[in-house]
From TrEMBL:
CDD domains: Hint, HTH_XRE. It comes from Halorubrum xinjiangense. GO terms for molecular function: ATP binding; endonuclease activity; hydrolase activity; single-stranded DNA binding; single-stranded DNA helicase activity. Belongs to the MCM family. Keywords: ATP-binding, Autocatalytic cleavage, Coiled coil, DNA replication, DNA-binding, Helicase, Hydrolase, Nucleotide-binding, Protein splicing. This is DNA helicase. It comes from the Archaea. Its EC number is 3.6.4.12. Residues 554-696 form the DOD-type homing endonuclease domain.
Amino acid sequence: MAQAGTQDLTEQFIQFYRNYYREEIGQLAQRYPNEQRSLYVSYDDLFQFDRDLAEDFLNKPEQMREYAEEALRLYDLPADVSLGRAHVRIEDLPESVDIRGIRVHDDHIGKLVSIQGIVRKATDVRPKVTEAAFECQRCGTMTYIPQSDGGFQEPHECQGCERQGPFRVNFDQSEFVDSQKLRIQESPEGLRGGETPQSLDVDIVDDITGEVSPGDHVTCVGVLHIEQVEQGNEKSAIFDLYMDGVSISIEDEEFEDMDITEADKRDIIELSERDDIYEAMVGSIAPAIYGYEEEKLAMILQLFSGVTKHLPDGSRIRGDLHMLLIGDPGTGKSQMISYVENIAPRSVYTSGKGSSAAGLTAAAVRDDFGDGQQWSLEAGALVLADKGIAAVDELDKMDCVTGDTLVSLADGRVERIAELAREAAADGDVEELSNGRHIRDVDLDVWTMDEDGNLVERPVSAVHEYDAPSKLTRVTMETGESLTATADHPFFVLDDGERVEREAAALDDGDWVYVPREIPTKAADGGAVAASGGAGAAAEPVDGEGVDAAMASVLGYLSGDGNVYYDRDQGVYGVRFTNTDEDLLADFERAAHEAFDAEPTRPPSEKRDGGVETVRVTGKEHADAVLDAGMNLGRYDEKCFPTPVSTGSRAAKAAFVRALADSEGHVDESAGNVRIASASRDLLSGTRNLLLGFGVSSQLQRSERDEGRDVYYLTVTDADSLAAFRRFVGFTATRKAESLDRVVDAADGDRTILDVIPDVGDALARSRESLRFHQRECGLNAGAYHGFESGDANVSLHRARRVLAAFEDRLETAAEDRDRLDATPTWETLSKLRHRYHVSQSELADGTGVSQQQISREWGERDELRRTVTERLRGILTEVAETDLDDLREFVRGDVKWRRVESVETVPPESTEHRGEVRRQRLADVIGGPVETVKEHARDLLDRGPVGETRSDLSAALDAYGVSQADVASRLDVSQATVSRWLTGAIETDRLDDLREAVAAEVDAVKAELRSILARIEDGERPRVYDLTVEETHNFVANGLVVHNSSDRSAMHEGLEQQKISVSKAGINATLKARCSLLGAANPKYGRFDQYEPIGEQIDLEPALISRFDLIFTVTDSPDPEHDSRLAKHIIKTNYAGELNTQREELASSEFTSEQVAEVTEEVAPEIDSELLRKYIAHAKRSCFPTMTEEAKEVIEEFYVDLRSKGADEDAPVPVTARKLEAMVRLSEASARVRLSDTVEREDADRATDIVESCLKDIGVDPETGQFDADVVETGTSKSQRDRIKNIKGLIADIEEEYEDGAPVDEVLDRAGEIGMDPGKAEQEIEKLRTKGEVYEPKQGHLRTT
């Protein structure tokens, strides 16, 4: 633009300021720069001043902003005032652009636009350099380089000495500005059910940073830009949108995106005056779901909500209602929740398994949002639903891992969790969900860690499969163990000597995570036997199942230097192994001959220099056998761990590892390790799991290569593991076996830095001091031991065993020495004990009435003093002998150890399918044709209609589906020739109908197989996450880690009651608003609701969280002929209406008229149009704030007091708490809002008390006594249960006085009748007391109270 034009524009802006913003600029001048640095300009003012100037600002915002800010600097101000760096920020644009509506062809790029939405994510505010000052290290000249968002720019050469550096950034001379990145997502009220909210990233700087938080509803004005996407080092043709924010304001009006017209208001008022308004509202909630009128009424009241009260002292009483549905499968919980989400003016729907990285609340997460891996604050469902409804299905399940996670089963198998889900679904009870499925009644046992750190066998009660969320968290240990899971998936962490739970996204580098020391073999009692103790029979598969040792060897060799070849076009199939070592070639031939009953060959043409030879076994049946045993068709990094090998015996597993190590392994005598190399991480991860079964620990490391594939190394380094490897696995190759012998003989367990006990210094110090040891007496060099106790170093397991052995020897010696004092000890004996246990004269004198001087003076002379000293020493030795080493023993000898976290990354979900090519080959086996198009061919065949009637139709069907005439003949019990003649018409037959049925049956069988294989292929291509429910322990061993599957929901407690979420991590301290109602659904633990068990024991939510719900409904499915008949008619009618409507829309020739369709549809349509109902609710919440009448107050008060009076007796339970009183107030206010009434009338209070009473009868009654008991929900333990626990504990205490070894369990059970308890209940309560640590077993079968 010409200079004159620039001056004109600047003058225009100056005149604009004089006309419109004289006072605002004066105020800015007074407050600049510390209190205010921006002038906010309304677009309307600019438009009124000069329409062209305003439109230019929209079309060329960056240029026009420069002129506007230059005008601000030139504006008439006192001489001592300068606005040199003040900003001009435009706001109040006339129209907002929908985030999902941003399009290139609409010319939005580079323009000033306004968007509205909710802040989903925000980084911390950080300094950003705008002009970097570079100081030349040679001459000191300063060079100033402006910085942009395109990367950090450095000077090419010094402006002084003209040399190319070196340079140092001078931070004092550089200029910085505060910066922040936001992710703004479409507001929920602007969406319809099922729409995925879109988002836009916004960069903001300087004084508008730090002003908004995740969960805030905002209007943001800024300039839209595009940025090229980079994939690795390559640039993509796809570009991302982002915005440079100019101004941002918080919109706190409720439902600002709802457009309610005057006509809408008239319709709303007319509806509110209907006598049957409540019935109409109920009829508008999920009309396709029959019944549940009370639950639907409660949902309506939740949508309208009570009134949020603000008291004069600033405190706040929530008006939002929280409601929980607990129900049997197939009762419509999910559909009702989904329907409410669709009609709520503002709502967020999520499943516990499909939650974002922030879960249901909020979280500080570390990912690439912003520049590089940094922490940002992300809002979860409760925050995003602020002032609306958070609809959460599957509230009881929240933590998952990816499908390639290798689970260690108690029968010795290692299987991917996705495959376990498929196996379980074949025979289990499957409940389909909108985003996955629950599979119950499964036959699986896994290894799991109990409270004492022991690995035990426990059953899996359910398997869960869900669509993967948009982001996952990958946690990798320094030794290579890795797990990809949902962000809120907890890990067991050793923190300051205690086991704690920490979510994946909250883990830090350096945290110590629990891993199994080894995978045990199975004991008869469900406990664990050390895997290194030998190949016990319990570890062997039964009934001849599993891969045998010969096939396992073949798989190992092929996984190393071999592969499967499968050339369908040439008809060439088989397996081959290539190596230079004659021992290995011969061993592969031996194993292949035994596995395939075929003669391997060594083609002379494949001999190469250096002695390289190839052994082949040709034949499709042999290639298929290897593929069926878990091999893949790929090579190098496409190889995978063949999980069926884990079904074999220990000998078979050892054979697999041995063959793989022989072909791809190396013994490094200088480093003292065994190393196996492969391009496939999956292969080595599975092998590592097999090695754990032999007590062999290993590290998995990656070696990145600039050219070619990365290589992974599985390395065995510690002395114990090397010895176990030699004993149970070994090498076939003589050279490697001899090297291994030398490495094992030279191995020193002291040098390991992997198998250490972290942060155990305090436990060592406590034990040592109690044992009265000096540091030099603890089995180690005094200097080394001091480092472990002081925390300067972590003690290795090898050295810790020596320390513990010394400590246990001391216990034994102390007990023996104490016994020696029973006889009259000599002064010489007393002197030895004094020095052995480092007892000073002052300690001997303490509490004896004898002075230290007397002991010194009379030592060795007076018998009376000797008796005094003896008794004092006896007391000291008793304390030493009673030193508790259990914690130290658990650390040293437990079934678990620890690995340090190396990295925590946010990653996108990916398919975990390893064998897609194998399954495509299987399709080709069924129907023929090229593999490249076999999926499409299979789908075409499945889309075909039924088999035709004529002979030619039947022949065509056989050809199309690859069915042989012999198969048809077998069904008809005739010869193939006969079928051929029937089909050609060579002979007539009266069995043509039989022929047609036989052909149709064969075609149907082929179709079923095609569907199965196709489903498996397509299922594998879709990213999923999985979870196992393991009762009691809530964890399982997988990927060489102890994987936890329960989470801490304490943040939800705050969200539901205080309606805010606090986050404090990584320097981020924030409190986010969560002023919403929660509508949740949960499944009973055991599949179906049991009305005779307390609710707290039936869902996987802690009582403290359950108690936060105002209403809890049990949605049950109990057979009732009359109800079932009405339900059946309703479902049939609903489906019939859908059939008519679909046919009318899809077929032009439909015989049904629109009037007929409307007549049938009207019976199942909502009484109030859903869009009008949304507006009705929004209008009521905006404009209606009812107050209580005296009659309403009396009804609620009388109900509450009357119910409470039932608990007035001394032995009666507390029937209800004040929480229910507040719930009744909220419900009655919501009831008044439904009528748009300014007062809460008696009918509203009656409606509220009826709903609360119904809920209490459902869930607030002790099933044993039939009485109302608030503690059933509040604490999860009813008064009758508490009394029973107290009584059984008292009985144990009484009986243990009668027996030296404690109360015999059988005696306690026999006498349980004395306290009115049958033996079965008594046994349950004893187990609960054991779990809580209130009783213990001093001896097998005996109990003592603590």
